Amino acid sequence: MTQPSPAALLEGSFVALADAVGSGRVTARAIAEVSLSRVEKAQKAFGAFLSTDPAATLREAEEVDRRVGAGERLPLAGVPVAVKDNINVAGRPSTAGSKILAGFVSPDHATCVARLVLAGAVVVGKTNCDAFGMGSSNENSAYGPVRNPWDPARVPGGSSGGSAAAVAARAVPLSIGTDTGGSVRQPAALCGLVGWKPTYGRVSRYGLIAFASSFDQAGALTRSVDEGARAFSVMAGADPKDATALTTPVPDVAGQPGAGLLGTRVGLLAEATFAEGGLHEDVKASFEKAAGTLRAAGAVVTTVSVPRVPFAVPVYYLTATAEASSNLARFDGVRYGARKGEGSLSALYLETRSAGFGPEVKRRILLGTFALSSGYHDAYYGRAQRVRALLVRDFAAAFRQVDAILCPTSPEPAFFLGAKTDDPLAMYLADVFTVPPSLAGLPAVSVPSGFSRDGLPIGMQFIGPGDAEPLLFALARVLEDASGVLARRAPGAVS
Amino acid sequence: MKIDAVLVAKVAALASLELTDAEQGAMAEQLTRIVDHFEALREIPDELLAGEEMPRAMPLRADAAGPCLPAGVVEANAPEFAHGHFVVPRVVTRTG
Predict the structure, then answer these.
(1) Active site residue ranges of A
(2) Of A99, A331, A386, A388, which to mutate for an interface test with B (greatest number of B Cβ within 10 Å)?
(3) Predicted pLDDT of residue A125
(4) Could you read off the pLDDT of A348-407 as tens digits, one per residue?
């Protein structure tokens, strides 16, 4: 039996890589060495990583080899994984992309990381991100922007931009991120990847640095749907450390055949075609093509309306920032992170926070504090919460007509660095399609559907009712097969 | 709605943030534009929103002490730590 090359394994699906490591045909250590070398290159080329610990990575890879040698069957044996820097990995820094957490070292694993490690994955680095997950372009990191491996003049999306760039650059086959209003799905779309957010509560939030707790979820970015589904099956599950984690059985997402889609009702989101801020014509064309692909696969494709979708961006930015203003109150220079200011406790709070938070985080804290403040609460936060409840009902009504909803993930392909940095509102509108399922706690999968005329990836998003992940992955496989994305390598991918 | 520098300063104080005059001015302009855009929520008739409330799905856990991080681990990340406690500037002072 010939020994497969680690480099070749990193080019393919990690399902095959895990099989090769699990059967002893290649070691996790050999894979980790090649991945670490690629991580360094991806960092230099795209700014994708914030920290690495090669010695720890190699130790952990050797531990996987030992477990494989002892006969353990590991679904992610030796799979290198990159972890967004707002998710804790024991013994490694977690800055969340912000100066205020400089020097913080995580005391333990986030539950989703612990589950990945238990399954045999090997952490190779922490990825760059918009500070506290606040951004749609990865230009709000205190440690510099991330560039898109498909075109380094363009953004990778955000806030999990480093996680997306790391996979698109082929430094790792798997990365994880947090998705509050689209922060896994939108960068997945802009970097030609599959990215999912689960039903709210399906993946534990323990160990995620909180932004907006009623939205935050961990998800994964991969090159293929099968890899995304395997990551889901490992990461999902109950957790006593997170009171919002679901305790019902995890849906089985393995191997849902595309042929089983005959008669599946897919609704094209009616509101997608008149999105505020416009829909890029290449995205519109890809949306129409995706509808045709699904019809050809046997799905019954209709149009479905979710009437309050046009209000989702205001609702999201009022409620998520309100939650952020509360969650980020903990960063006060007392228990962890950077400290500034002397003389009085209030001076310490003020100086620590003013020096530590970047402009976008300050803007969102101010917006959220305003929305909650006396005299404005009912008109802004209160009203937004009521519209959010109405949106939940809209989705429930839509899912009485269809089994899943399809819409573009992003209204446009990757935009140029700096194109929206002076206009926060324009940046917020980039989330127009990703925030609705977040507001309703619904699962959603973004899958590449094709390319723009400029050669940039385009992604489509399937949204389903709670626990519909098996159907969403099955539908995503149909578009993946038709898009040809798996045959294309980002021009900036490293080797 | 116009959000002026005075309102920004008031909200910043509530959030324990200190902004320079330039930051205050820029935030006032940006937040006004953002909040103006969000006024679109008023287009939804009140009667449609009557009784709407987000479901509270989160079950309450037992109010019982659980395991916590050992003091040594906590100390490693603390800016200042002594005798098992976080050190902050003096809060209570004796006068007179």
Answers:
(1) 84, 159, 183
(2) A386
(3) 98
(4) 999 999 999 999 999 999 999 999 999 999 999 999 999 999 999 999 999 999 999 999
Angle between helix axes A111-118 and A225-235 (nearest 10 degrees) is: 110
**pLDDT tier at A255, thresholds 50, 70, 90:** low
In the numeric block, which tokens belong to residue A53? Answer: 């610990």
pLDDT of amino acid A256: 58
- In this prediction, residue A205 has a pLDDT band, given cuts at 50, 70 and 90, of very high
Q: Does A44 touch chain B (CB under 8 A)?
A: no
Strands A444-451 and A457-463: antiparallel
What string of H, E and C letters represents the secondary structure of A98-120? CHHHCCCECCCCCHHHHHHHHCC
Round to whole Å and give the CA distance between B92 and A459.
Answer: 57
Instruction: Provide φ and ψ at B82, rounded to 5°.
Output: -150, 140
Closest CA to B54 of A380, A214, A389: A389
Is A385 close to B54, i.e. CB distance below 8 A? yes
Q: What is the pLDDT of residue B57?
A: 62
Taking residue B36's Cβ as centre, other Cβ atoms within 10 Å add up to 13
Write out the H or E segment, with its range, that includes residue A324: helix A312-327
Looking at every residue in chain A, the average pLDDT score rounds to: 96
Chain segment B28-73, per-residue pLDDT in tens: 999 999 999 999 999 999 999 988 787 766 777 788 888 888 999 9
All residues of chain B having their beta carbon less than 8 Å from the beta carbon of residue A362 are 17, 19, 23, 27
**Cβ <8 Å between A243 and B61:** yes
Indicate yes or no: CB of B41 within 8 angstroms of CB of A333.
no
Distance of alpha carbon A381 from alpha carbon A315, whole angstroms: 8
Using a CB–CB cutoff of 8 Å, tell me whether A337 touches chain B: yes
**Rounded mean pLDDT of B9-17?**
97
Ramachandran region of residue A78, left (φ > 0), alpha (ψ -120 to 50) or beta?
left
Task: Find the closest chain B residue to A245 by CA distance.
Answer: B58
CA dist., res. A406 & res. A284, Å (int): 12
- Please check whether residue A390 is in contact with residue A259, taking contact to mean a CB–CB distance below 8 angstroms: no
Q: What's the length of chain B?
A: 96
Under an 8 A CB cutoff, do B58 and A243 touch?
yes
